[in-house]
Amino acid sequence: MSDIEWKVLKSNDDAERAQLNKILADIREKLYSSTGFSSGMTGANQTVTASINDQLNAMAEAWRNTTARINVMGDEVQVIGEDVLYLNSTVFDPETGLEATASALEVVRTEVDTLNDTVLAMYSLELDANGYIVGWKFTNDGSTGIADFRADRFRITAPGSMNSFEVRDGLIDSSSSTHSLYQGVNFGANSDLIMWYGPTPASQEDGATRANGLFSIGSNGLPHFGGTLEDERVAELPTIQDHEESLLRLGAKNADGTAFILNQDTVRVTPTESLGQRLSSIQSDFDDSNARIDSEETARADADSALASRIDVTEATMRGVATVVNPGFEDGDVGWASSTSGEGPLPDGVSIPNNAANAYSGSRYLLLTPNDGSGRAVFNRARFAAKPNEVIRMRMQTRTAGSTNAGAQIRLGIREWKADGTWTNRYAPYLTSPGGTWLYPDGVVEGSVTLSAEAAFAQPFIYSQDLTSGAIICDSVEVRSWL
Question: pTM of the predicted model, to two decimals?
Answer without folding.
Answer: 0.38
